[in-house]
Amino acid sequence: MSLLREITEAAIAKDADVARLLRLCLVLAQRVDYRPLLDWVTWELKGYPAGVPVPDYRHVSMVNRGLIAGYWSGQIDLPTYQIPEEIRGKLLIHEFRDGISELQHLVTNASKSGTLTIPWPMEFMFKHTQNIVRGAQVTKAWSELSLSAVAGVVDQVVNRILEFTLTLERTHPEAGNLVGFAQTPPEATLTQNFNSTFNGAVQNYSAGGNQVSQTAYSVAPGDLDGLIAALRGAGVGQADSDELKRAIEADKQSGSNGLGASAGGWLAGFTAKAAQGVAAATVSKLVLAYFGGV
Fold first, then answer.
1. Concatenated DSSP letters for the chain?
2. How far apart are CA 78 and CA 138, in angstroms?
3. In the chain, what are the domain boundaries?
4. What angle do helix axes 100-108 and 35-46 make, rounded to 10 degrees?
5. Cβ contact 224:248 at 8 Å
6. What would the pLDDT profile of 48-76 be if each residue is shown by its tens digit?
7. pLDDT 10s digits, 214-259
8. Which phi and psi (to 5°) does residue 44 adopt?
9. What whole-number distance in Å separates Cα of residue 201 and Cα of residue 291?
10. Whole-angstrom Cα distance, residue 22 to residue 158?
């Protein structure tokens, strides 16, 4: 059985062993000598280190809930407007940096509630939940996400591997085989397949280079907090993010319903300076998505 066929069979198995599947891809990446695939597989196995952007499929939306006691009591959904902007995004979107085995362990050992909770630290909770409900005090707070979303992260990994492998098998069925090692696919072919398959969900590498671009989040039209969180996740600095927010608010006050002069000027200036480590094209897509342009 060829290596590509072995990977395909492992991916479509009823109870796929995703860690083993990734190790097979590690063999493939080494044999075809393709660094982008090697990096992605390594990070999925071991976890994403600090400084490496997390693929968009590893970002999961959260809701924030709490228990109140006093004149009123019970469970409520907690608003986040009172949370400082620089940390608000972390309460709305959780990025999983752990290796794939840890994610599978979370799903396998999940509670019957079907949710995963992340408690708020007590000092943080008391500081940022004052006066949310008149006559009541928040006594416990947590961020909550669906375990089905965590399972979806694992599925995304398997689906990407399967698509990449099937596409490569059509043109280079012997890729990764020791016997056919001399028929290693050209780097351009691997790059086209890699970028097409992952479609911005993982880093897009240019053939023969080390350039990286990534779309970390999707942004709903008109969701300013979501836009700022997405830009921060994509690597845009706090000062630049704050400047854009002021520009958008200034445009609104001037009566603009779309990309106004202030926000447009910010986007043009940011694109021109091409902030280090941040893909200008990604930032443009996020900003335009906020205005309903994509």
1. --HHHHHHHHHHSTT--HHHHHHHHHHHHHHHT-HHHHHHHHHHHH-PPTTSPPPGGGEEE-EEEEEEEESS-EEEEPP-TTS-HHHHHHHHEEE--S-HHHHHHHHHT--TT-EEEEEPPHHHHHHH-TTSSTTEEEEEEEEEEEHHHHHHHHHHHHHHHHHHHHHHHHH-TTTT-STTGGGPPPHHHHHHHHHHHHTTSS-EEPTTS--EE-------TT-HHHHHHHHHHTT--HHHHHHHHHHHHHHHHTT-SSS-HHHHHHHHHHHHHT-TTS-HHHHHHHHHHHTT--
2. 9
3. 3-55+151-203, 56-150, 224-290
4. 40
5. yes
6. 998 888 888 888 888 889 998 988 889 98
7. 444 567 778 888 888 888 777 788 888 899 999 999 888 888 767 7
8. -70, -35
9. 22
10. 9
pTM of the model: 0.63
**Which residue is listed with tokens 């059509």?**
170
Residue type, 226: G
